[in-house]
Automatic annotation (TrEMBL), chains A, B:
This is Transcriptional regulator, LacI family. SMART domains: HTH_LACI (SM00354). GO terms for molecular function: DNA-binding transcription factor activity; transcription cis-regulatory region binding. The keyword Plastid does not apply. Residues 11-64 form the HTH lacI-type domain. SUPFAM superfamilies: lambda repressor-like DNA-binding domains, Periplasmic binding protein-like I.
DNA sequence: CTAATTTATGAAAACGTTTTCAGCTAACTA
DNA sequence: TAGTTAGCTGAAAACGTTTTCATAAATTAG
């Protein structure tokens, strides 16, 4: 109601004065420093809440060279999987008193590079990144690594050696499950519409696909294997190519749900019966897969679990010895699960 | 590559030393203070880029009591409309050198209150909020207003007087367009499945609906007007209630796309032909409306435009005289547009 | 030509914390 | 008993800016 501008009151000095202690002790009490008497600590805590004290992050950050801010770079927040992941990351970081700066690369490598600059200049305490599919050179993340700032890659991670932590779904397993599911549903001629092999995601999925096919002694038709950006348009083109031939697939393992949706639409237009003549699986369990007709079998990636694990690992890294390694040597693998729907003829 | 941790180098003092000037002058030059010689300014700028200088936000924030951080509270990022809005806000704020802290209320009033606490403690320079539908008491935003921190509400805004800025779509117009479209398509018995009247959104839409009906001398059946939370379940219940009677609607104006989708599903199950026997419109132009069969006519709300305007207005407020009002007295209205699809029998 | 003003710069204090160093008491050790 | 150690606290410096105050140089007014 008041017109004038009020100041944020109550600093550490106010608590000090109220308790006839020095600001140093207050600071120690608030930061759980071991050398502070239990009685003093509780006194300080009480007075702090009584005065409504809030730590001034600018001041503490200036002194301690910590921002208590984490940077996040993702392709775009509107993708279902990422929206879920960041929601969880956001909430969990909050509990630990960290803020999150979310930046979108729009799936552009240039933008991604720029954002690393900005976030480095913002002096984030750590960086979480899901790279673009085109990112094959990761040197723009070097500055963080060199500086000793933890970097966590998830979903789309660098291949080979890199002094960072990796958290990813079990893409091999997901592909293996999906392919086996198609085979169990009776498919013999299975196509794989996948993403660029520059990305670890699609390397692993290709391997999972091949493994399942081999195990059932099914041959893989190279003309039915696509490695390209997983857009709606590319999916249509792939479908067209495959279905203008004499022999056509009876199963399609699509590496994302957009592609699966495009396949369904194509089948509808051409009068190809799904799931009778053609069975389709997607990947990611986007909510759209449940509402389209027929609904689409897909692979659940547990985005919330991914988010939770990211924060858990991050907190470990941030509290580790100052001179310890700021990354995990072993990648963290999140399990996946197949959700069966109409497009493969099973379940509702 | 290096193992050791590097410090962020180059402060304002390094520039000062390199140019044999005082830090005060450097600071002034960097902040475009009028009293600094043109030659000096360019020298400073040059040296700053040469040394790769980056302002330390903690330090400048501590001194100037500005965080260059904006808080954002929304129900959830995974809602299409909000995802688009925040993407734009994020990008535009970036250009002005501001960071954004995104917080999700999960559509819970309690959470929303908590988040205002956190963001107030974070000392954000301004707050942007899309409230929950249940928020009818807005007093948890008072602390910002009292403190002189600009508050911008969008989408779901407080009704009545409040010392904040409002940015919203033209809900009256959207409802008017949708209803008129149904009427033009031949509907005589139109139902309105809407949200709680506590929210300005649904008050305005109710008015737009009534206006269009009146203008065409169509009577409104009170049993076909619903004001309830717009969930999938509630939509089904509403449909059931209406379609177990003898006389049933031939048009449904649904106030969000989830409701429209539920209506389509219900019609499919009951063998009600859409659009022949029943025409349906949604609201928000969620991408799902385009892929479902039949595709759904909906109202485009131009989320990017909303985001852009929010940042424009915010920048005005932040650069205004320190003692000026920190809000616009007139609400900013964003236009809407009807996108015609199969569910009303027009277009593809 | 002197006095007043404008332009341009520097010295130093301030912002609110954290942390090093030192010191003091109480509790061990030998 | 004296010497060491552990537990607790305070004084003061530091973090990198911004800003007030003072002052010098350059310009304008009279």
């Amino acid at each position: 109601m008041a017109g004038g501008k009020k100041n944020y009151q109550n600093t550490i000095l106010d608590i000090a004065e109220a308790l006839k202690l020095s600001p140093a002790t207050i600071s120690r009490a608030l930061n759980n420093h071991p050398y502070v008497k239990e009685q003093t600590r509780t006194d300080v805590m009480e007075m702090a809440t009584k005065l409504g004290y809030r730590r001034n992050h600018m001041a503490s950050g200036l002194r301690s060279n910590k921002t208590r801010t984490i940077g996040l770079i993702i392709p775009r927040v509107s993708m279902f999987f990422h929206a879920e992941v960041i929601t969880t990351i956001q909430n969990d970081l909050h509990k630990h008193g960290y803020n999150l700066i979310i930046c979108q690369s729009n799936d552009s490598v240039n933008m991604e590079q720029e954002l690393t600059e900005t976030l480095y200049a913002s002096r984030v305490d750590a960086l979480i990144a899901a790279c673009t599919l085109q990112t094959v050179d990761f040197s723009h993340f070097d500055k963080f690594v060199d500086h000793g700032t933890p970097v966590i890659f998830y979903d789309r991670v660098p291949v080979g050696d890199y002094k960072a932590t990796f958290i990813k779904g079990s893409d091999f397993q997901g592909a293996y499950l999906a392919t086996n599911h198609l085979i169990a549903a009776g498919c013999k001629r299975i196509a794989h519409v996948s993403g660029p092999l520059t990305s670890n995601l699609y390397q692993d999925r290709a391997a999972g696909f091949l493994k399942a096919m081999e195990e059932h002694h099914l041959s893989v038709n190279p003309e039915w294997v696509f490695h390209q950006e997983l857009t709606h348009e590319n999916a249509r083109i792939a479908m067209q190519e495959m279905f203008e031939k004499d022999i056509v697939p009876d199963g399609i393992f699509a590496d994302n749900d957009t592609t699966a949706i495009a396949a369904i639409e194509f089948a509808k237009e051409k009068g190809i019966g799904v799931p009778d003549a053609l069975k389709i699986t997607g990947y990611s369990n986007d909510p759209r897969t449940a509402i389209i007709t027929p609904s689409i079998t897909s692979i659940e990636q547990f985005p919330n679990l991914v988010g939770t694990r990211i924060v858990e690992v991050l907190m470990e890294l941030l509290t580790e010895e100052a001179e310890g390694p700021v990354y995990k040597t072993e990648p963290v693998i999140i399990p996946v699960e197949l959700i069966s729907r109409m497009s493969t003829g099973v379940n509702k």
